[in-house]
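Tutorial handout. Part one gives the primary structure; part two gives the three-dimensional structure as tokens.
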Amino acid sequence: METEAMQPLSQRQASTQTSNRSAQSADCPECGATGWKMIAGLATLCDCAIERRIRTALPERYWRAKLGDFSGPAYELVFDWLLNPSDGLFITGPCGTGKTHLGAAIARQYITKGVNVKLVRCADFYRDVREMFKSQSPYAESDVMEPLEKSRYLILDDLGAGSL
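Part two.
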């Protein structure tokens, strides 16, 4: 069974564009499907538009990931970092401890605030780079790198896995 993450870049881009169009055509009672609502005389991004951005940026499994799903030291350290971000945040731990879920929660937090963030599974990035250098590649370096360069924050998931 092929998941979206296993698809080549061109297929993932087409799938995302199709799902965005269908999500935007849904009627929202707050904004009338425009993506904007008025609050105190100011145009503000509607919750439905924020959710569309989250669904574009994150795998379906993590659409509902929130920082509130965590407690204790992990939550405190990440929350402190979010308040005063430095050059990077490295999250490590054994398999199944919620690192990807935490990365998705961080991404959701930023997206909710209107910050451009990208969560990338490293194995997918490595595959796209290898594909890019094939002689008959349907896309160029900019297809792979530009979405990453445009993001204010880049979350690399499973760094070191799938690099062969």
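Part three, for discussion. The helical segments are 9-24, 47-57, 72-83, 99-112, 122-132, 141-149. The longest helix spans residues 9-24.
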